[in-house]
Amino acid sequence: MSGLEQYPSYRYKDGKVEKINSSSSSNEKQLHGEKVGQEENIDEGRRKVMKGIGALGVLAALGLGVRKAKEVEKEEPQPQPQKEPVVNTTVPETAKENTENIFWHESATLHEPLEEDAIAFREVVKWDHGKKIELNANTPDRVESYWRKRYKEDPKLRNSLISGYKEMGAWLPYIEKIFEDEGVPKKYAYLAIAESHFNIKKPSPAGAVGHYQIMPRTALGKVARLRINRGFDERKDPLKGAAACARLLKHDFNLIGDWDLTISCYNGSFAWNYIKIAKKSGVKPTYAGFIEYIEQDINGTIDKLNSGLEYTVRKKDSLRLIALRFNHQGHKVTVDDIAERNELGRQVVITEGQKLFIPLSEKEKENKFNKKVRGYIENLNYPPKFKAINYLIETGFVTDKKNELKFRSYLVRQVQEKEQPKKKWLKRLSQKPKTLKTIAKEIGQPVEVLTYLNPAFDKKAPIPDGYTIRIAFV
After folding, report:
1. Average per-residue pLDDT in the chain?
2. What is the pTM of this model?
3. How far apart are CA 204 and CA 207, in angstroms?
4. Cβ–Cβ < 8 Å for 239, 174
5. DSSP 19
6. What is the largest CA-CA distance in the chain?
7. Which residues pair with 468 in a beta bridge?
8. Domain enclosing residue 127, as ranges
9. 380-414 pLDDT, tens per residue?
């Protein structure tokens, strides 16, 4: 048994994940409510016909075109009429009950950006000579306006949004069905744009992979239920990644009850720290409370930096020795600085166990502050950034998208030990595991088509027995 085969196989059925028995019959139902089809057994006559059609016919049927020999071309943009702005004024029941979420009105209704009030979170949360920061109910709206403006005016971001939306269009009907079946609002399917702009070529510096940027530990957890192995990573599959994202959002929302806070939790761990503290204190966690928590925590950091580093005097210490010790650690501090900060006056004798504060330079304070708030800024940015993307999509800022993909399921059957021939040379051939490359040759479809439809697999990676892949619908 190979390393891949020891994991159970799953498939999608009506937007849900089901375990596939390795002895499943050939009339398995196909992925996402597709028509019932039989296990692909392509005879020699059909194989010849497929080869006669050739790569061009298969690619054309997929709507992918041909770029160069054995490459998939980007399809020509399909002109579409400009959409009228869509305003969603329907408030779910769960939101009506959540009266504590002061941002619900902005979450439920698309509103015009106030570009004159636009501001980046890094401008709000920055070191300003030890002054306290202030976050309020209007801050998320101002940051959302900032992201709308950036996506409109920054060529790199605008092109990323356009290309990501276009590429996502091929998979969007299937993805929306997954979110709908999980009970998650369909708009959160566009978290793939906020996370990766639907581009999975490079993982994040933290190790997150896929259209929905899922970390390995999260992917292998009980909620996401994805599989990762050598040459095989289901996070890269747009439908399996979408299903994992939808399950995670549903799980977290059931615990939290606030969508803005839920997607903050999806983005990072800072929101979870706040939720633990809030629940321990008997307070209902909300996104408004999360912002207040961050404001208090950051201002507490500012107070500590203004106070300096706390130091307990050791035996035989002197101010000169303490100053030398901190200078050796990279701090620039003098005896006079320490004496002035601690109001020692002309006192030259200090006692063991005495508490002193070692002042920091303005540059040291700024560096420590920036290191502390870096993760906070990313976490705070996430809901406003997502809302800005959703607003631009709903109001027709981007319209061009690929046509819906048409594909069908193919149940992979690896040769079992008892089925192998007795002759050694035939046994060696039969033991070679099936891959996208060998299956492409077997069914007469270009391997580029199968790798496009099954991005979770490298083309030479063995496919687990009983695993359902996608093949071109021709």
Report:
1. 78
2. 0.71
3. 5
4. yes
5. E
6. 101
7. 411
8. 109-279+382-394
9. 889 999 999 999 999 999 999 999 999 999 999 88
CATH code, domain with 142: 1.10.530
Residue 192 belongs to a domain: yes
Q: Are residues 194 and 237 in the same domain?
A: yes
Q: How far apart are CA 417 and CA 400, in angstroms?
A: 50
Tokens (6 digits) for 123: 């401008």
Sign of CA dihedral 389, 394, 398, 401: positive
Q: According to DSSP H, which parts of 72-154 are helical?
A: 93-97, 104-108, 121-124, 139-153
Measured CA to CA, the distance from residue 474 to residue 466 in angstroms comes to 23
Q: Write the burial class of residue 345 (CB in 10 Å: 0-12 exposed, 13-18 middle, 19+ buried).
A: exposed
> Cα(322)–Cα(334) distance, rounded to whole angstroms?
9
Alpha helices in 63-170 (DSSP H): 93-97, 104-108, 121-124, 139-153, 155-168
- Do 253 and 124 fall into the same domain? yes
Q: What is the pLDDT of residues 232-260, one digit of tens each?
A: 999 999 999 999 999 999 999 999 999 99
Residues 248, 189 share a domain = yes
Rounded-to-integer distance, Cα 278 and Cα 265, Å: 14
Query: Which residue type occupies 210?
Result: G
Q: What are phi and psi of 12, to 5 degrees?
A: -95, 135
Q: What does the block give as tokens for 223?
A: 């909620």
Residues 204, 121 share a domain? yes
Please name which of 470, 473, 471, 468 lies closest in space to residue 27, comparing C-alpha atoms.
468
CA distance to 187, 336, 348, per residue, from 345 (Å): 64, 9, 8
Alpha helices per DSSP H over 309-433: 319-328, 335-341, 362-394, 424-430
Q: Are strands 16-20 and 9-13 parallel, antiparallel or unpaired?
A: antiparallel
Say which amino acid occupies 13.
K
Give the pairing type, strands 309-312 and 355-358.
antiparallel
Is residue 212 within 8 Å of 195, Cβ to Cβ?
yes
Read off the pLDDT band of 137 (50, 70, 90): confident
Nearest CA-CA partner of 412 in 451, 470, 459: 470
Supply the DSSP symbol for 201: S
* Each residue's pLDDT tens digit, 154-191: 999 999 999 999 999 999 999 999 999 999 999 999 99
Residue 418: the pLDDT is 52
The pLDDT of residue 36: 34
116 and 148 Cβ atoms separated by less than 8 Å:
no
